[in-house]
Amino acid sequence: MQISSGKTFKLQPLVFQGPCKSNAINFRLLGKISAPDKNEWAENKKEKWVTFKEVNNLIVYGSGIIEGSGPTWWKDVESERPTSLAFTSCDNLQLKSITSINSAKNHISISSCIGVTIFDVTLIAPDDSPNTDGINIAGSSQVNLFDSFIGTGDDCVAINGGCSGINITNVKCGPGHGLSVGSLGRNQVNEEVEHVYVKNCTFNGTQNGARIKTVPTSAVEVSNVKFIGFHGSAIKEKAIKLNCSEVKGCNGIVLEDINIIPAIEGKNLEVVCNNASGTVQHTTPPVSCLVAKP
């Protein structure tokens, strides 16, 4: 399928449903697709705009633009806003060189997929646009994201329960909330996230860098997590925050080669450390609750 260059198409919600007989499915975006505004969605009640489901070996690429008509939704924070692009049970998925702007909610959602490659994508929304995650990943494995720009009003990347083998490299993030694992442990559900690697990423003007979020009253266990080579400035006073569950705590935390300075000159930075254990080395501001390594 191809969206031709120089053309703009307003699309009502649609679903591309597999399984497909072909070994390779190409969706080539050269023009522009535009979502209906909020008033045009009134009778639809759908949570996703464009959905691909059970379409394996799918390639979505092109220099066109995906316009989510977000400004018509953002003032009504409680409304059932749609995700722009959703991929469910799409194994061996590739997303490359696409641009998504002004999504009503998430720009891209990846759910129950195995083997995903995302590169050279641009995802943009204003910093005050609510819940406009760049990429939201759930129940998926072997996901590789690299060489991309994500600047939104929420998480640049959100990694939820059931994910493993997530590799994020050379991603420029900001504005937004940074890169987040969780929230985990809602409704006392047992969730696992493992083997998440973040390398050579830039966070500019984000509320956080990288964070793990758990529900405070849950029994989620966070262990063997390493934060190495974080350098930059912090807008918030709490530059490092290890606020772990009272039930399980955080164990085996490693902070190494970290240098965070205040974004505003003369402002003091703080460290929050509750129910956490591990080691710290060459880290500014100092983290006194962890064991210092020479």
UniProtKB/TrEMBL annotation:
Location in the cell: Secreted, Cell wall
PROSITE patterns: POLYGALACTURONASE
Ubl conjugation among keywords: no
Active site per database record: 177
Gene Ontology biological process terms from the UniProt entry: carbohydrate metabolic process; cell wall organization
InterPro entries listed in its UniProt record: Glyco_hydro_28 (IPR000743), PbH1 (IPR006626), Pectin_lyas_fold (IPR012334), Pectin_lyase_fold/virulence (IPR011050)
Keyword field: Cell wall, Cell wall biogenesis/degradation, Glycosidase, Hydrolase, Secreted
GO MF terms, alphabetically ordered: polygalacturonase activity
Protein family according to the UniProt entry: Belongs to the glycosyl hydrolase 28 family.
Protein name: Uncharacterized protein
Species name: Arabis nemorensis
Lineage of the species this protein comes from: Eukaryota, Viridiplantae, Streptophyta, Embryophyta, Tracheophyta
